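Re: the 139-residue chain
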Amino acid sequence: MIKGIAHNAIKVSNMEKSLNFYCNVAGLEKAFEIHDDDGYPWIVYLKISEGQFIELFYNGEIDPKTNYSSDLIGYHHFCFEVDNIQKMANRINDSGYLKGITPSQGKDFNTNIWIHDPDGNAVEFVQYHPDSPHMKTAE
């Protein structure tokens, strides 16, 4: 039986830039690292919540032919749930990573922010609205 999503794995081109984004901008915590059989850095795990991680793999080299596009088949984006979307917008703006980020309300009543990580992967932050279909599934 599935209990949840354990991790999302991303191969990154620049670990320092990615760690800055996911830790300093998004607010995740570096949990641990794993090295390969030769002792070289291989994966950095960032903790989202208990038992849930983002895995950042070193040494991504090939740029896709196109960065994020809403009509691409396959991976689209991942989303972090936050308890205060305005605080997250302020954090992103204050970090200097992006400026002028403002939350907006979606058709599902939730409030969202959409941005891209240093490698162009789409990242969403959401604050669930009590009347959203997402919250009504808990009833």
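The two ends are 21 Å apart (CA to CA).
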